Automatic annotation (TrEMBL):
Belongs to the zinc-containing alcohol dehydrogenase family. PROSITE patterns: ADH_ZINC. The keyword Zinc applies. It comes from the Bacteria. It comes from Streptomyces kunmingensis. This is NAD(P)-dependent alcohol dehydrogenase. Keywords: Metal-binding, Oxidoreductase, Zinc.
Length: 353
C-alpha cells in the first residue's frame, strides 16, 4: 500500500511511501481506504510523537478487501466506516459506552496491537500504526471487525468523518446534552465538530447560537439556521445547554456563566488539563459539567442513524467537506487552519498532484 508517513519537523513533514500492511488476524479485516478525514487529534498526536515515524488517520471509510477467518459480520465488498477501537467486553463496552473502554489507550494510542505486534512496516521496519485501531492515512488499513460499521452506498467522503469528528459533535448533542424544541444551545467553536453539533441540534428543533472567530464559519452556521457571534465577549442571552469544542482553558467558566439554572455544559475539545471554575456557582445553580469522548456514542447504532438523517436532508454533512489527494495533507491542514476549509477529507486513490 501507499501510506502518508508523518513526522513533526515543521511544514511539509509528511511523505508518501510504500508500506507493508500485516495480514489480518482472525478478528481483523483489511479495508481499501476510499476517504479519510483529517482531525485535530491527528495533529496533536503528530506533535506528541516528535520525529517518530507514524501513519496516523482515524476517520477511514472504504471497502472490505480481506477478512480474517473469524469475521462473520462483514463481507468482502462491504463499504464501512472505521471508528475508534474498543474491547467489547469491559463494563463500559457492555453498557454501550465504548468510548470509555477500559483498554482504550492500548487499543487506540499505543501504535501497535495490544500484544505489542506492529501492523505497518516501512522498509521492513515497524512504524507507529494501529492508530485508533486503523491508521487510515493510506490506501489500505487493518482494523478489528467490531470497529467497522457498514454504511452502504453513500459518498465515502461524507461518511468518513463519522468515524470521529462528526460523531463527536453529533453524539454530544444526541447522547449528552439532548436539547429539543424550546431549548437554546451555545456551541463554542464552529469547526467540523462544532458545526456537526449545530446541524444535529437544529435537526432536533433546538435554537442554536455559535461563538466562532472565523467569519466564513460563522456565515456557514447562519446559512444552516443558527445565529452567530464572533466571541463570548459579544452580548449573549442565557442558554439551556452549551458545548465547548475549543479546549481553551478560559471557555468552561465563561460558558457555565451563560447557562440558565440547571443547565449543562459538555466539553469535547483537547486542551490544557486544568481550568478554573466557580464550584459554588455550579452547586447553587444546579449546573452540570460533563466530559464527553467520541460523542459518548455506540458507533454501530449512531453512525447509521446519522447517515439516515443525512439521506433525509436533515443533516447536510456534505456541505462541511472539502476533498484532497493523499499527498495534499499539508495543504489540507493549512486550509483548515486558515478557515478556508472546514473539514478536509483525503481521497487516497485520487491522482497525486
Amino acid at each position: 500500500m501507499r501510506a502518508s508517513v508523518l513526522l513533526s519537523r515543521g511544514p511539509g513533514d509528511s511523505e508518501i511511501v510504500e508500506a507493508e500492511l500485516d495480514d489480518p488476524r482472525p478478528h481483523e479485516v483489511i479495508v481499501r481506504i476510499e476517504a479519510v478525514g483529517v482531525c485535530h487529534t491527528d495533529l496533536v498526536t503528530r506533535k506528541a510523537l516528535g520525529e517518530r515515524p507514524a501513519v496516523l488517520g482515524h476517520e477511514g471509510c472504504g471497502v472490505v478487501e480481506r477478512s480474517g477467518t473469524a469475521v462473520d459480520t462483514l463481507g468482502v465488498g462491504d463499504r464501512v466506516v472505521i471508528s475508534f477501537a474498543s474491547c467489547g467486553s469491559c463494563e463500559q463496552c457492555r453498557a454501550r459506552h465504548p468510548a470509555y473502554c477500559d483498554r482504550a489507550t492500548a487499543l487506540n494510542g499505543s501504535g501497535r496491537r495490544p500484544d505489542g505486534s506492529p501492523t505497518i512496516r516501512v522498509g521492513g521496519s515497524p512504524v507507529f500504526g494501529a492508530y485508533f485501531g486503523q491508521s487510515s492515512f493510506a490506501t489500505a488499513a487493518l482494523a478489528d471487525a467490531r470497529s467497522c460499521v457498514p454504511v452502504g452506498d453513500v459518498p465515502p467522503e461524507v461518511a468518513a468523518p463519522l468515524g470521529c469528528g462528526f460523531l463527536t459533535g453529533a453524539g454530544a448533542v444526541l447522547n449528552v446534552l439532548r436539547p429539543g424544541p424550546g431549548d437554546r444551545l451555545l456551541v463554542v467553536g464552529a469547526g467540523a465538530v462544532g458545526t456537526a453539533a449545530v446541524l444535529t441540534a437544529l435537526s432536533e428543533g433546538a435554537e442554536v447560537v455559535v461563538a466562532e472567530p472565523v467569519a466564513a464559519r460563522r456565515a456557514l452556521a447562519v446559512r444552516c439556521g443558527a445565529s452567530a457571534v464572533a466571541s463570548l465577549d459579544d452580548p449573549l442571552a442565557p442558554v439551556t445547554h452549551a458545548l465547548d469544542t475549543t479546549g481553551r482553558p478560559e471557555v468552561p467558566a465563561r460558558a457555565l456563566a451563560l447557562l440558565r439554572p440547571r443547565g449543562t455544559l459538555a466539553v469535547v475539545g483537547l486542551g490544557p488539563a486544568t481550568a478554573a471554575i466557580d464550584v459554588r456557582d455550579l452547586m447553587l445553580r444546579g449546573l452540570q459539567l460533563r466530559g464527553c469522548v467520541e460523542g459518548d456514542a455506540e458507533p454501530t447504532l449512531h453512525i447509521p442513524e446519522l447517515m439516515r438523517r443525512h439521506a433525509q436532508g436533515r443533516l447536510p454533512l456534505d456541505e462541511l467537506v472539502t476533498t484532497y489527494a493523499l499527498d495534499e495533507f499539508e495543504q489540507a491542514v493549512a486550509d483548515q487552519r486558515s478557515g478556508r476549509t472546514l473539514k478536509p477529507v483525503l481521497l487516497p486513490n485520487r491522482s497525486e498532484s
